[in-house]
Design goal:
The protein is mainly β. The protein folds into two domains: 4-165, no CATH class; 172-279, Sandwich (Immunoglobulin-like), CATH 2.60.40. It contains one helix and 21 strands. The protein has one helix at residues 84-92, and strands at 4-7, 14-21, 46-50, 56-64, 69-79, 97-104, 108-112, 119-126, 136-145, 150-153, 162-165, 170-171, 174-177, 182-186, 202-208, 214-220, 227-228, 230-232, 239-243, 253-262, 268-279. The strands form three sheets. Strands 1, 2, 3, 4, 5, 6, 7, 8, 9, 10 and 11 form an eleven-stranded mixed β-sheet that branches. Strands 12, 13, 15, 16, 20 and 21 form a six-stranded mixed β-sheet that branches. It is elongated.
């Protein structure tokens, strides 16, 4: 049997993701896949999944054969570090199926799955493809539909349940060349995608070797001096990280770092951590 596959969705551009257990709906789509209204039970299990930018994708592929026309759906979330609590939550809900509300960057929401035939949540693991690449864990919501996902404009789900925040303790490697100036930027988003204002927050970041020796230090704090390697943009929503080439004349090697944020109420949270990799320049030219 020959089957033709046609890409009908996009493999990127997910702005917001809300999933609802597929047995918690009091309404359903019509025979054409259109929802007149979406009504949930009072005890519906609603979960919003927060994720780092560009780490969530929607893939819709139409599979056409002589006897069938099926749409294969897959929502992928890349998570470098899988916490024990998150893994346990997925295991506890392994038998549950979900309807996913996937908002793209045009603020259209794709309704993936139907009551009684939702998407299955799985975990896949991938090893790094080179010596400096990390192993990753992908959370995948996969399933099939007879019709392509119904699209709702300006959809707003009232959240009454759990929030899974995949942006917490995000892992990212920072790679630099020894003696080159360092420039990086960090932004933090609210659940609606807007940038958070950082003016009242303090940020601290240490780069340390395997013996816990301090190699580099960054901070933006209330005490004097207020800034070292960190500054905010004029709008107050972007944290800039910079070091001069002279400051980056440190031994080549692989170090560890973490970025800590302290809010005005004293709450301390690790926002980012990973490896700080310093490589030697091949070209050694000076004027």
């Amino acid at each position: 049997m020959n089957t033709d596959y046609t890409q009908v969705g996009n493999i990127a551009g997910v702005n917001r993701l809300v999933i609802v257990s597929d047995d918690n709906f009091l309404s359903s789509p019509d025979n054409f896949g259109e929802w007149e209204d979406i009504v949930l039970s009072d005890d519906a299990m609603v979960v919003e999944i927060l994720f780092a930018p560009n780490s969530c994708s929607l893939d819709v592929v139409q599979a056409v054969s002589a006897n069938s026309n099926i749409y294969n759906l897959q929502i992928g979330l890349t998570k470098p570090l899988m916490t024990k609590e998150l893994r346990q939550w997925i295991v506890n809900n392994a038998e549950r199926k979900w309807i996913a509300f996937v908002e793209d960057y045009n603020f259209n929401t794709h309704v993936c799955g139907v009551p009684g035939a939702g998407l299955q949540m799985l975990i896949t693991q991938k090893t790094g493809n080179n010596g400096s690449a990390r192993n990753t864990n992908d959370i995948v919501l996969a399933g099939q539909m007879l019709l392509s996902p119904y699209i709702i404009e300006n959809f707003n789900m009232v959240l009454s349940g759990k929030v899974i925040d995949l942006t917490r303790y995000a892992t990212r490697d920072i790679k630099v060349m020894r003696g080159d100036s360092l420039k990086e930027t960090f932004t933090f988003k609210n659940a609606d995608g807007s940038l958070q204002i950082l003016e009242d927050d303090e940020f601290f970041m240490d780069v340390r070797d395997s013996n816990n020796n301090l190699i580099l230090e960054f901070y933006r704090r209330n005490a004097s001096p207020t800034e070292k390697g960190f500054s905010l943009n004029e709008a107050g929503n972007t944290l800039n990280m910079q070091k001069t080439g002279t400051e980056m004349l440190i031994p080549a090697g692989t170090y560890n770092y973490d970025l800590v944020r302290i809010t005005p109420d004293g709450k301390r949270e690790t926002q980012l951590k990973g490896r700080f990799i310093v490589e030697n320049n091949v070209t050694n030219h000076q004027n």
